[in-house]
Amino acid sequence: MNKPTVGIFGLTGCAGDQLVILNCEDRLLDLVALIDVREFLMASSENDTACALDVALVEGAVVSQRDADRLRAIRQRAKILVALGTCAVWGGVAAMDRGADRRKLLEEVYGETGLSYDSQPAQALHEVVKVDLNITGCPIEKDHFVTAIANLLNGDAPVYPSYPVCTECRMQENNCLLMERGELCCGPITAAGCKARCPDLRVPCVGCRGPVSDANPESLTAMLVEKGFDRQLIAARLRTFALQGAAQ
Amino acid sequence: MSKIVIDHLARVEGHGGITVEVDGDTVGNVQFDVFEGARLLEPLVRGKRYDEVAPVLSRICSICSVAHTLTSLKATENAFAVRVSPQTELLRELLFRGESIESHALHLFLLAVPDYLNYPSAIALSADKPAVVLLGLRLKKLGNLIQETIGGRAIHPVNAVPGGFGKAPVIEQLIELRSALMQGVSDSDAAMDLMTTLPQVDFCHCDTVYAALRTPSQDSYYSGDEVMAVSDGSRAIVHATDYKALTNERAMPHSHAKHSAFREKPFMVGSLARLTVNPRRLIGKLAVAKKRLKLQLPADNPMDNNKAQALELISDVERALEIIEQLLRAGIKDEPPVPVQPRAATGTAITEAPRGLLIHSYTYDAEGRITAADVITPTALNAASMEMHFRKAVEQSAERDDATLSRKLQMIARAYDPCISCSVHLLRRQ
Lengths: 248, 430
Hints:
heterodimer, A: alpha/beta, 5 strands, globular, B: alpha+beta, 4-stranded mixed β-sheet, 3-stranded antiparallel β-sheet
């Protein structure tokens, strides 16, 4: 059997999802033996930048014309395009306030020079091209990545939790930060898969994995307002990692 | 007039390139191009409550996410005059060491060493020399284990919060870390052995100014408030609150990273700068290793940063072990974070990220909402110095063909271990 050709790409982001791949230390050499990595600029200086790809793994958000052009070119080459991480799936932190006047922000940070920069409001990959599989997380979980590769090699689509962080948190018998300590925890609307890492450490969930599929931000907002939190603060918190997390 | 253009640097974090104009033996314009998209996180973070700032600004960069998180917390705590416990100080320093071990192992073994041995990647290298790559991966994993145990996650730590930690590690976890670090002692020695077998490369020689956190009384990446700049024969000290005297940043049309100069001279930050500013770190085993590497300080060759990273791998493992012993001796306590009382104030923090000086400076209102954030990263600080070394390398090269010059430029760029995602996020203009 021919090994599937794979490209690993980063648009604008922190490179954390590519780093998760490199962090599969024990399994990295076995993993790359099963696939034919043709392009991985962060790890290799020998890249085939034009070949057809069975799988393209793309992290980061689209925040420039350059990103959008690269993404479209990757899409054309790839049979399966996988969005890796919260920025690629939801837009991530760069998209938290998309309504802000971008020219003003650029000028504020870079002065007049900034006005000439190639820059546009942050978008998730699916807003620019068709995405075949989403692996969310900021960063993605190592096991989710390894499972995805194993599944794709077998021609299956991986399945990820469709329940909220609260479910995983309860299974670990943690005290509820939201109900019992009155902390602003995004667990009820955030997609599980992290084993409730933050609340398990008594730190409220910040929603870094994006909303769970049947998220109900309105009811969480109502509950938090009842607990005395400011509506604006709640909305800002809920859209920090995924714009769509906040009640409209 | 011809141009050497490296469109997209490989084996570095983020998106950058190099352009050098050459006219015979004369070098014209030299540019380290940063075309990583601007995420504008500093203005976007405005209005956030003090406990929301670190999780957002951590996302500036994955490889330095511990440094960003802890520097952010230190800036916030400085603004609110919060004093964390001695245990928190130790755990934070340990977390910094974990990140440094991971980052240096990643850079040396997966990004830099393939250059010296003429391989395009560590994956290609692993086919011929699996032991070398596996050694690097073991060290990398050790750094990640420290970050997971103390920070709760290897990338974007979640356990470090204003005032301390969500939950302290338990004794069993520290003992497990200690065992892993024991293996790390021999692995970091083996990394040193490998470094001594690599060919000496010197593509340029020139006087370089080095800047690093000055920590005279102890070896620390996290505590300390003074930066020392050292150039041949002269020294200058800048206090954290005067950091703008050090940076004097300018926005450049070719780059989304602003450039820094100190007294009109570019300066270099990172491992080599840390060892130059704090030479007293190099005692015992490290002094021997320095000799074996034929490393002279202050160095006039930027490629020596790779040697300095190998030395730091040894010292990071040693320091992490010391900290764990201290924590075990004192008895680790499950202490809650120190309560934070917000006030209208400005707080600045300077630390040593794996790639060098990292500065976060924030202004808060009375409710503890952030009104202004400045972040200055090591790669942005290094941008002007990189360009200076690119220029010298092209000027001093006997070989004039594009392929050789291009290879030299890429190796110098990688020796700086640039983190381009980081470099994009810079301070507000005054």
